[in-house]
Design goal:
The chain is mainly beta and about 375 residues long. It contains three helices and 25 strands. It has two domains: about 90 residues, no CATH class; about 210 residues, Sandwich (Jelly Rolls). The protein has a 16-stranded mixed sheet that branches.
Amino acid sequence: MNFRVLFAAIVAVFLAAPAFATESADKTDLVGVTPITDANGDNWTTGGYSFTGLGYYLLKNDVALSGGYAMEIYYLNHRVYWRQNNNVWKYWDGSAIQLTTDPHQQQSANCTGTVWCDDFNSLDAGQHMDPAHKWGYAAPYPPDWDGTTNTGAATAINPLFSATTGTPYSNLYTTDGAGNLLLNIDNTPSGCGTTCRGQPYIMGQLIATTLFGPGHYFEVRAKVPPTPGTNFALWLYEDYTATGGHYQEIDLLEAVRAVDNSWILTSQTIHHDNNTAEGYQDWSRDPTQWHTYGAYWTPTSICLYIDRVQTYCNAQSVAGYTGNMWLYLSSQSGGSWSKGDIPAGTPLPVSMTIDYAAVYDHKPF
């Protein structure tokens, strides 16, 4: 065997093989022609300025992406983002171009180290980096897959369902201009019909489409208005009784104000089933001020926190939970909780203000 010929052949094959593409670092932010390399080894850069005026042609492995124009490109959580010159942000989901919000804002300090988070810098339901991590319908179980569900004298309206988007429901989901969500209660608009189910009020409710199980810490930073007859709630829920499991509910917060304004209750509750529960109640704390409300659910315990100070803890075996749960944010009329619903003539809308909702795979303190 001619080893010199063999060695030359091996070298030729090695030189002909493509160089191993190293994935770009998280939060790589580039302008111009320097490539961003994604997790698949594809190189992304920009070419000549497009005749549409939306930016430079976006190139994937030196081939222009149809409909892709970029003034800058950004890499975060294995996803390529780009900004057009009209400040519209888009991303590539692996097969198509999708609209999104500024990814620099999406990764705020509040969301550092989380596995799921919304800091409400916008109301984009897909801003959680993973397409599966979104806010869903008003009720995640049949027969209420229509964007609505009833709570007391209010009908929950979800902004992501086609039948309940836009006027007259859009004011249930707004921002305050400072990166906070305003999740509102309002009078039922005239002509709402079957969507509002004949209830006097409509309320904002968001539910994460991701199911979470033990081993997670849940935290929401929020404040509520001093409105009589209301119950603003941050909670985890699922009902497995139909399949032989347990009713499951952990209330990070229920802020209930009496219909006559004589008291305000800050409550955190671990439910064992539909009839028994335990937890923490405080009749002196002021939920109209900013607080963080948390729950750390592990295979052995469920512990509750306000401002990251433990308020209550029990053994997981007491609750007996057998499945995972969804995260809810709800602005509700009080009903029996507050000894009556919102008094007639109360100026509406009123808002629960939410800074962020975050889920960690560890207790971050």
